[in-house]
Sequence to fold (546 residues):
Amino acid sequence: MTLNKTNPSKTKSWESLQSISENLKAQSILSLFENDSHRVSSHTVKWEEFLIDFSKNKIDQSAWDALYSLASECKLEEAKKSYFEGATINETEGRAVLHTALRAQNTAVRIDGVPIDEDIKAVKEQMRRFTSSVIEGSHKGFTGKSITDVVNIGIGGSDLGPVMVVDAMAYYKNHLKVHFVSNVDGDHINEVLKDLNPETTLFVIVSKSFTTQETLANATTAKKWFLNFAEEKWVANHFAAVSTNLKMIDEFGIDQKNVFTMWNWVGGRFSLWSSVGLSIAMAIGYDRFEELLNGAQGMDEHFYEAPIALNIPTRMALLSVWYNNFLEAETEALIPYTQYLQRFPAYLQQAIMESNGKGVDREGNEVTYQTGNIVWGEPGTNAQHAFFQLIHQGTKLIPVDFIGFKSSLHGDQSHHDKLMSNFFAQTEALLNGKSAEQVKKELISEGKSLQEINALLPHKVFKGDNPTTTLLIDRLTPYNLGALIAAYEHKIFVQGVIWNIFSYDQWGVELGKQLAKTILDEWNTKKAASHDPSTKELISYYRQNS
Fold:
């Protein structure tokens, strides 16, 4: 069963939302609180250790109801069934989308009639054995020493997910130092290699095809560096691979028992739950990796079963559609109030923009409405001293997700209270702003002259009415992190369903790769290729001066 192909802009709900949005544009969020004494409770969803407060958004119940109707008209429930049961919803690549199966305790899903449950369990057990041997020290390097450093070599989903989780779970890390190399820029890998000991370093090469240019270049550089100190036969002890290209892996010298399979029904940007998460399991131990999976599974079940009004990922997605398509928001910001989640916005940039940055619908027609979201952010409170000026007093509508935790991990309550006072104050300030009357009183109390007051007044007024969603979670644990990531994954899915696009291919990534290969081949063969005048001149200048 493939996904329904409904043009959302032709639905009755879409028409209703356009009418509702025109009315709401003229209303302030504060007025919505004034008109609904139960607004906070009716716009708050609680699930396990999560509380999501949607009340500070420019949306009322009539808009929510119309969005729920839109989801129904776009056959969201049928789409969820197809998603979880392994239908070929990635139609352009002929694949199922089953990262959810990786974290299920048991799954009856079949691909082309073949059950996948046992394969998943086998790879998990292989990961458990291998990571345990490295962590406990029984896996030895070429001089008999245990591994101290692990280098994950990948790019895109083979890097962004693992590096984000390893950063986020630093509190739970063991003694292994885990490093990440992704950029084909040689300075990246050489900076990492210069501080490593070849006797105690393990490289994990993550590439489904084992042909990705950036990953293969970095893997080859790592191998050359290693062979400056050891014989070829010892490559087997110091390199592992997550891939399906057994021939090239064998030629590289990696021991087959240290090769972890990938499946084509797991997209790269949703692959951290698979063997791509090997570096995560080595950083925090396999048991905690399983806790991460369990948290994601918990959110999977919530997403699949919870009614729409209480469904966290669905409401997040519909709110995003509301801003993107009816209130003309150009971007969305994500501000985690924990340094541990410093890579979370970057991770979601790929997950969201690579998934839903599509300009044609599921029937191949150009869309006539906005899709995708431009996503950006940094941790609070750093973000407050960087770009919050734009959010507070700029000209753009920027919905913001604030992600915070009730408890700190190290238990420094003084620091955490300062952090969280900013967390709550910022959403309050963005909602309420500061009126001209308030500013005037402040300036008078400071002894400013009338001339000074008139000059300063317009610059110190905050209009407020800036929308925010608050995600308040008890504690940053592997389980809760897994649930948080899964919530945003399902948000992506719902948006794709509503927008009638394919969220799980990424053809836009391919063109640049193809042209880069053409240019590199041109340099290697010294046979000129065809380029536009600008590119031709730039290449000529580079070759003359490099």
The longest helix spans residues 478-499. Residues 117-262 form a domain with the Rossmann fold fold (CATH 3.40.50.10490). The chain has a mean pLDDT of 95. The CA atoms of residues 475 and 525 lie 57 Å apart.
